Amino acid sequence: MTQQQLWDVDAARSYDTPGTGMFAPDVLGPTVERLAELAAGKAALEFAIGTGRVGIPLAGRGVPVTGIELSEAMVARLREKADETALPVVIGDMATTVVPGTFGLVYLVFNTISNLQTQDEQVECFRNAARHLGPGGRFVVELWVPELRRLPPGQSATVWRSESGYVGMDVYDVLEQRAVSHHFHFDAEEAHRTGRTDAVRLGLSPHRYIWPSELDLMGRLGGFELESRHADWSGAPFTADSRSHVSVYRLPPS
Questions:
Q1: Mapping DSSP to helix (H, G, I), strand (E, B) and coil, where does residue 161 land?
Q2: pTM of the model
Q3: Among candidate residues 189, 147, 188, the one with its CA nearest the CA of residue 171
Q4: From the CA atom positions of the chain, what is the Rg in Å?
Q5: How many CA atoms lie within 13 A of 114 on its CB side?
Q6: Buried b (16+ CB within 10 A) or exposed e, 178-198
Q7: What residue stretches are annotated with the Methyltransferase domain (predicted)?
Q8: How buried is 167 (Cβ within 10 angstroms: 0-12 exposed, 13-18 middle, 19+ buried)?
Q9: What residue ranges in the chain does DSSP mark as E strands?
Q10: Which of 94-103, 174-183, 244-253 has the lowest mean pLDDT?
Q11: Backbone angles phi, psi at 147, to 5 degrees
């Protein structure tokens, strides 16, 4: 399945969940606050801007935002909320597409760099970020830490969330450094009452996972130095037990 097929009209229609999940104030608020701080008054470019979850509120903070997005369906959804004047978007992939202008900040949130399926493409993503930045510019990547320590011997899958109406599971291929996220959505009360399982909706998303040290090497290949790494957007310390990280890379000032 290609990324265009994955992020189709149905995915775009169901992506926004105002006030909950990724759109919950305690999730989105710190993200926008930190990015506005890192932009430091300069323009920002969002790779894989999607439906504008982050880009629209960041622009609302006075940061000029431009987006790159592969899925026309996701951009159509964004256009229901912000027009081209308020938030320009170029259709293309984040590893090679170039937009006019020079930016102080490029950012890539919510594990999206792992949507690129090869190491070469992921390295090119860093190089493309550098291509758009001026001296001292920053590239911010939010990414999950592969949970291979949770894999029992001989097993290839971990359940990373289980709650009423939803189960999230990752199936790993440790040889190829890939993972496929399985998202099971269902009406828990209906399933419990009737025993029916045919109402379960399954969504799949393939990833090439990246260890933090490998990500740092990609940064160096792109001309960046690691400026900071935290466990979340609020600045919690990154430790061996952290499940994700927000890493800020910076180009030399001259």
A1: strand
A2: 0.89
A3: 147
A4: 18
A5: 23
A6: ebebbeeebeeeeeeeeeeee
A7: 45-137
A8: middle
A9: 44-47, 65-69, 89-91, 103-108, 133-144, 157-163, 166-173, 178-185, 201-208, 225-230, 244-250
A10: 174-183
A11: -95, 50
The pLDDT tens digits of the residues spanning 4-17 come to 556 667 766 777 78
- Do the beta carbons of residue 212 and residue 113 sit within 8 Å? no
pLDDT digits over 167-212, tens only? 889 899 999 999 999 888 887 666 566 666 556 788 888 999 999 9
| Structural contact between residues 111 and 210, judged by C-beta atoms closer than 8 angstroms | no
Q: How many residues does the chain have?
A: 254
Q: Can you tell me the distance from the alpha carbon of 84 to that of 106, in angstroms, rounded to the nearest whole number? A: 19
Considering all CA atoms of the chain, what is the largest pairwise distance in Å, rounded to the nearest integer? 66
Which has more confidence, 158 or 228? Answer: 228
| 245: helix, strand or coil | strand
Q: Is 81 in contact with 63 (CB distance < 8 Å)?
A: no
DSSP letter for 119, please. Answer: H
User: How many CB atoms within 10 Å of residue 83?
Assistant: 10
Question: CA angle at residue 155 from 154 to 156, to 5 degrees?
Answer: 130
State residue 171's pLDDT score. Answer: 92
| Partners of 66 in beta bridges | 45
Q: CA-to-CA distance for 138 and 121, rounded, in angstroms? A: 19
Structure token digits, residue 116: 């690129």
Measured CA to CA, the distance from residue 27 to residue 212 in angstroms comes to 22
How many angstroms separate the CA atoms of 200 and 166, rounded? 9
Q: Are strands 89-91 and 65-69 parallel, antiparallel or unpaired?
A: parallel
Residues 209, 97: Cα–Cα separation, whole Å: 22
